[in-house]
Specification:
This protein is 58% helix and 0% strand. The chain is mainly alpha-helical and 93 residues long. The longest helix has 14 residues. The two termini are 21 Å apart.
C-alpha cells in the first residue's frame, strides 16, 4: 500500500515539478507570455488546450476537472490546483 502511494506521488510529481515546468508547457499554446496571474484565455489559450491539459494531468495522476482549471485560468491558479493535488497525495484537487 505504501509503495502504491509512493508511486502515485512520484507519477504526479513528474507532470510539472515546478511552476516553471507548467509555464513551459503552456507558453507554446499562447500568443505571448502572460504574467503569472493573467487570464490565459486572453492570451490565446483555447478550451481545447484546456481539455488537453486536463487529460495530460489526469493521465499522470493529477485528478482535476475542466471546471477546476477553468476557474483557475492563470498560471498561478493552475499551479495552485496542481499543488493542492500534491498536498493531498495525488488524489483530488
Amino acid at each position: 500500500m505504501l509503495n502504491e502511494i509512493s508511486e502515485e506521488t512520484n507519477r504526479t510529481s513528474l507532470v510539472f515539478a515546478t511552476k516553471d515546468d507548467l509555464s513551459a508547457y503552456l507558453l507554446p499554446l499562447l500568443d505571448e507570455e502572460p504574467e503569472p496571474d493573467d487570464n490565459l484565455m486572453d492570451y490565446g489559450l483555447s478550451s481545447i488546450d484546456m481539455m488537453k491539459l486536463v487529460t495530460h494531468l489526469r493521465e499522470n495522476g493529477v485528478d482535476v476537472s475542466f471546471d477546476d482549471l477553468a476557474r483557475a485560468i492563470s498560471i498561478d491558479g493552475i499551479w495552485a490546483c496542481i499543488s493542492a493535488v500534491h498536498a493531498k497525495g495525488g488524489n483530488h484537487a
